[in-house]
UniProtKB/TrEMBL annotation:
One of its GO terms (cellular component) is extracellular region. CDD domains: CE4_NodB_like_5s_6s. GO terms for molecular function: hydrolase activity, acting on carbon-nitrogen (but not peptide) bonds. GO terms for biological process: carbohydrate metabolic process. Its main location: secreted. Residues 554-920 form the NodB homology domain. SUPFAM superfamilies: Galactose-binding domain-like, Glycoside hydrolase/deacetylase. This is NodB homology domain-containing protein. PROSITE patterns: NODB. Pfam families: Big_7, Polysacc_deac_1. It comes from the Bacteria. InterPro entries: Galactose-bd-like_sf, Glyco_hydro/deAcase_b/a-brl, Ig-like_fold, NODB_dom, Polysacch_Deacetylase. Keywords: Signal.
Length: 920
């Protein structure tokens, strides 16, 4: 079975497992004896800022602020009470009072997060409507989600009750996942729980850090699940909130290579227990693969002269498997660049896709371990003269028809809209045109489009038609790929304004690699009428098109929304190393509330001892190798870096190590450094415990990199840690240079110092509101506060923000736009997808959103479309991280795209520069 097949089966298993967990979670919620309505605050009331059956209250003198929804503990939503200034009293969320049984025992629980001490208080209502309160418990601060649970007895005269989880100090309190149930529900239970291991699978091969997972159910409740390997306990699993899945992360390097047996034991709240079936696995922590793949170009032959399509056939060999094959075909002025991710690595290249003359094919392959092998380049020639006068559209002027419809044409409307298609209508050329009307609009579009025509992959085409319309319309190309499934991709070519008279639209675009068919939609996605006629699709001839609405030169902008800490940790080093300027949109309240401190002393190695060594750093060599240490060497941040080099290697490692750093137990930390290495290297964490013992954990191996790259890991120190050090080591013959070390508490957003550092590096800083609200749902005064005062927040820091704004979410209207104009902004960016021309709305600039699902092919497709049509492509990013979240972009993908921009000399502008070019 191939690696791709294994990956596909794993994806199916994860999907089935998630569905099982989710289904069982719902089942558990139904039998759970919880008398609190909307206990997980998932359902909002008619007021979207308050959940159904919930209330909030501020007592006495403080400026409490209540937020809903916020980041969740269990499903999607949670509650927050925040006090910014305080004299007396408190603030709290609470559920509407529920009926209880006097003299009965109940169990109350919730999950909470707070940086200050908080109090849980019960409010009783008697049968005579007399209100009384009793403090149930005082809780310590907790930066992570922590469960509180307490049993109590209802007084004799009480008929109803609610619970206040109160904050009475300056800071915040987040709560979620509330439960109130009769204690008797848990008594007299003799039924043991059921438990089964869900991961790893039977006969799996394990290495490095892995997650053990088990699903456990009980007629009452499971209290713990313990995992055993060869009858030795490895610890208790953590429960996924509101599910029945328990997980434990272990390091298999602590286990000998070979066959092992895993089982799980579950215990319920009545101390009944049971064990799962055994799962046999094979542990293999063999040394990492450092052998690059072998790659060669089988065809075309070197120095061929071709007048027909070229078959590029790439052959590869690797022990562990190929991740992708990257190829480039170039004659120095124009290129075809693409990646293939599965065999066979064959591509058809039309001779018309490149200028006539000599072309160089370069190919490299990367294996699953990150090793890269290069093929010997091939040079070949093309001599091809295409017919640029042929119109590939059949019946381009709608002159022939059958059964009341034009031959070779189709129309389509999404079912949630209502509209009509009329043919023939008033003509512009011979006798007929086609019309579409949308009478009501919900989503998507309605359009006319011609029958798919065959095209040359890599060739440039020009599409034109004549249209008149009462609303904006869009021209979109639909590509059909030459694969077994007929994959389709859609690319918007232009947005066109309404026109009372017949107007000609002309668009130039390049057919992507592996595409063999295309059609073009002329569509509307708002209420109105569009008529089209006189359509044409021809091969592009240089100099034949002159559109005054396009830019003199195409361009790309990189924009980063919200001010996430990963922008500073991961995106900024990539941009700085490439000397590319981006733009960062800051939620200013989040920025002001963030704090940070690098725990590593002398992190950029600028301070030296009298022995010409970096202060607070030491050399470390273990095992049999001839490590040589150098300082200072070429730098990435300020002035100095450190280097270790090994010529003769047998075992162990060599590294520069920083002094031990004190940290807080059970708090997440981010470690990162910049490095250059010609071989894979390893990052290792060493804890020093309170009893002076040490614990060593390998965080991971990072691939070789000829340019400055980022190594980044997140970890949480366990209980009883006194200090730690993290070091980056050389584990084979080769060299390693490192610089710019960071060890920080993990935070969601950048702090003021980090934002100022980005600004001082020459990047644009823009306001993205104060609190990221839905601007169309708040008052004009609140909108002014969000738009104008977020700009002032930056000015107060000495940051002169760019005169541009980004609307939170997707919401803005004419009133919001006018407030942005009145605040002095020269333009604003939306999250509507598309490209920008000189006539685009400066206060509704369109974007393409980059996330974890965006492939390199899609990025290059957007870029090539902007290039061919001389448009402005704005890319929007959120988090830049390794997390498997749909809306986050991968760090390595951003680096690949930035390298692509630099390699191909693609013009990159900031948002302000782009807006200024719209007026030229």
């Amino acid at each position: 079975m191939s690696n791709n097949d294994m990956f596909f089966l794993k994806k199916i298993f994860v999907a089935i497992l998630f569905f099982t967990i989710y289904s069982n979670s719902l089942a558990n919620a139904e039998i759970w004896p919880n008398i609190i309505s909307n206990f997980s605050v998932e359902n909002a009331s008619s007021d979207p800022a308050i959940p159904i059956d919930w209330l909030n209250k501020k007592e006495w003198t403080n400026d409490a602020l209540f937020k809903y929804p916020i980041n969740w503990q269990d499903w999607n939503r949670a509650l927050q009470a925040e006090i910014k200034s305080y004299s007396n009293g408190d603030a709290k969320w609470y559920f509407k009072p529920v009926t209880v049984t006097p003299r009965s025992s109940y169990i109350f629980s919730d999950y909470y997060q707070s940086n200050v001490q908080t109090t849980v208080t019960i409010e009783y209502t008697s049968v005579n409507w007399i209100i009384s309160t009793i403090n149930l418990w005082t809780l310590p601060p907790s930066r992570g989600w922590t469960k509180f649970s307490k049993t109590f007895t209802v007084p004799a005269n009480a008929s109803k009750m609610t619970v206040f989880h109160r904050i009475n100090k300056i800071w915040f309190l987040k709560t979620d996942n509330f439960s109130l149930s009769l204690a008797s529900f848990w008594q007299n239970d003799t039924t043991p729980p059921l438990v089964a291991i869900s991961s790893p699978l039977k006969n799996s091969v394990l290495s490095g850090a892995i997650q053990l997972s088990a699903i456990a159910n009980d007629n009452k409740a499971v209290s713990s699940v313990n995992f055993f390997i060869d009858d030795v306990s490895f610890g208790s699993g953590l429960l996924w909130s509101w599910s029945n899945s328990y997980s434990l992360l272990i390091d298999t390097s602590a286990i000998s290579n070979g066959l092992h047996v895993i089982r799980a034991e579950a215990t319920d709240t009545s101390n009944n227990s049971s064990a799962s079936a055994n799962v046999n696995v094979n542990v293999d922590n063999s040394p990492p693969d450092i052998i690059p793949p072998i790659v060669s170009i089988a065809s075309p032959l070197s120095w061929s002269i071709l007048t027909w399509a070229t078959t590029l056939n790439i052959e590869t060999t690797d022990i562990w498997g190929i991740a992708f094959v990257h190829y480039s075909v170039s004659n120095g002025t124009d290129d075809i660049v693409w990646q293939l991710t599965k065999a066979p690595y064959i591509i058809q290249i039309s001779p018309g896709a490149l200028k006539n003359g000599s072309h160089v094919i370069t190919v490299y392959a990367q294996d699953l371990a990150g090793n890269i092998g290069n093929a010997s380049p091939i040079t070949y020639f093309t001599d091809y003269t295409p017919d640029t006068n042929q119109n590939f559209i059949l019946n381009p002027s709608f002159e022939t028809w059958s059964w009341g419809l034009p031959d070779h044409w189709f129309h389509g409307i999404w079912w949630n809209n209502s509209g009509s298609f009329v043919y023939p209508v008033t003509w512009i050329d011979w006798g007929s045109a086609a019309e579409v009307t949308l009478n009501s609009y919900v989503d998507w579009d309605a359009k006319w489009y011609f029958e798919d025509v065959e095209v040359l992959s890599g060739a440039t085409y020009v599409y034109s038609d004549k249209y008149k319309s009462t609303t904006w319309s869009i021209i979109t190309a639909r590509y059909t790929y030459n694969d077994w499934s007929g994959t389709m991709a859609y690319v918007d070519l232009v947005s066109l304004p309404a026109s009372e008279n017949w107007t000609t639209s002309t668009q130039i675009f390049t057919i992507p690699a592996n595409v063999n068919k295309v059609t073009v939609f002329h569509l509307i996605n708002s209420m109105g009428t569009l008529s089209i006629d006189d359509t044409s699709l021809k091969l592009y001839s240089t100099g034949s098109i002159n559109d005054p609405n396009v830019f003199n030169n195409w361009m790309v902008s990189l924009t980063f929304d919200d001010g996430w800490s990963s922008h500073y940790d991961n995106a900024l080093p990539i941009l700085e190393n490439a000397n590319i300027k981006g733009g960062f949109y800051i939620i200013t309240n989040e920025m002001k509330n963030s704090v940070n401190e690098n725990r590593i002393l002398n992190p950029s190695l600028e301070i030296q001892t009298s022995w010409n060594l970096p202060t607070n750093w030491n050399k470390s060599q273990t095992g049999d190798n001839d490590a040589v240490f150098s300082y200072p060497v070429q730098w990435v941040s300020w002035g100095n870096a450190i280097k270790v080099e090994i010529t003769s290697y047998t075992n162990w490692e060599a590294a520069w190590k920083s002094s031990n750093n004190t940290v807080a137990s059970n708090e997440p930390y981010n470690f990162s450094d910049q490095y250059i290495s010609d071989v894979p290297t390893k990052v290792t964490l060493v804890y020093t415990m309170n009893n002076d013992s040490t614990q060593t954990i390998d965080l991971g191996v990072v691939p070789a990199s000829a340019t400055w790259s980022l190594a980044s890991f997140t970890f949480t120190p366990p209980t009883n840690v006194e200090s730690l050090t993290v070091y980056h080591s050389l584990i084979s013959s080769g060299s390693l240079i490192t610089d710019d070390y960071h060890l920080d508490l993990a935070q969601d957003y950048m702090n003021t110092a980090q934002v100022k550092e980005i600004y001082n590096a020459g990047h644009e800083i823009w306001p993205h509101s104060r609190t990221h609200p839905f601007l169309t749902t708040i008052s004009n005064e609140e909108v002014i506060n969000e738009i104008s005062w977020s700009r002032q927040d930056l000015l107060d820091l000495g940051i002169i923000p760019s005169d541009t704004f980004v609307y939170p979410y997707w919401e803005y209207n004419s009133s919001v736009v006018q407030i942005a104009k009145d605040a002095g902004y020269i333009g604003a960016r939306s999250v509507n997808e598309g490209y920008n021309t000189k006539v685009s709305d400066k206060y509704g600039l369109q974007i393409q959103q980059v996330n974890s699902l965006t492939t390199p092919q899609q990025w290059e497709l957007w870029t090539q479309s902007a290039m061919e049509n001389k448009k402005w492509l704005i890319l929007m990013f959120h988090q830049i991280d390794y997390q498997n979240d749909e809306y986050w972009a991968k760090t390595e993908d951003l680096k690949s795209y930035v390298d692509y921009l630099v390699t191909n000399n693609i013009p990159v502008v900031t948002l302000k520069q782009g807006i200024e070019l719209m007026s030229q």
